[in-house]
Amino acid sequence: MQAYQDMVYSTAARLLGNDAQAQDIAQDVFLKAFQNFDQLRTSPTRGGWLKTVATNMSLNHLTRYRRRWRSFSELHREQDDEDEPALDFAVPDTLLDGVAAGERQRLVEQALSRLPDHQRVPLVLFHFEDLPYPDIARRLRVSLGKVKTDIMRGRIGLAKLLRTGASVPTHGQPQP
């Protein structure tokens, strides 16, 4: 199970944007794994199981303790979302040219931690967890249009943070 510590922690940290909360979630994931150790010990899918549990526990934590999902943009009618094209915003390929892979990952992780929850979480679920928009909307209990808008705004915010090289906090707390 030690081989999966970084993966479980980084999954929680990306979703939560807070190191201390990610550590708590990672600890809870491994407690759950210990309870299911007999089945997981020989399972070839234990890594996927751990990642799924980390994702679900992180989302449950956000839902339970951070009810920020109900924003003004959600008040739009569901029918308006049907005709809305998928919104996309790409970070320029040259933005992080010349930056070593490890440093690039650190910069992206730090910039992600600066995004508001309602932008960071869908962005992480889409890009890091490979979930499609409808699944993200269902898991977060928000409209499809909100997911698309939040991912687009998250990409724009992430690009701005990476472009400006804004200093980021070490514990996932936004600076004033």
Kindly provide the name of the CATH class of the largest domain.
Mainly Alpha
Task: Classify the secondary structure makeup into a structural class.
Answer: mainly alpha
Strand content: under 5%
Summarize model confidence as the mean pLDDT.
Answer: 76
Q: How many helical elements?
A: 9
Spell out the helices and strands N to C: HHHHHHHHH
N- and C-termini, Cα separation? 38 Å
Walk me through what this model shows.
The structure is a single chain. The protein is mostly helical and 176 residues long. The chain folds into 2 domains: 64 residues, RNA polymerase sigma factor, region 2, helix turn helix motif (Rna Polymerase Sigma Factor, Chain: A); 93 residues, Winged helix-like DNA-binding domain superfamily/Winged helix DNA-binding domain (Arc Repressor Mutant, subunit A), CATH 1.10.10. The chain has 9 helices and no strands. Helix 1 packs parallel to helix 4 and helix 8 crosses helix 9. It is globular, with a radius of gyration of 17 Å.
In short:
Helices cover 64% and strands 0% of the residues. The protein has 176 residues and is mostly helical. The longest helix has 21 residues, at 144-164.
Break the fold down into its secondary structure elements and pairings:
Blueprint: H1 5-16, H2 19-35, H3 37-41, H4 46-65, H5 78-82, H6 101-114, H7 117-127, H8 133-140, H9 144-164
Structure keywords:
single chain; 176 residues; mainly alpha; Rna Polymerase Sigma Factor, Chain: A; Arc Repressor Mutant, subunit A; 2 domains; globular; disordered C terminus
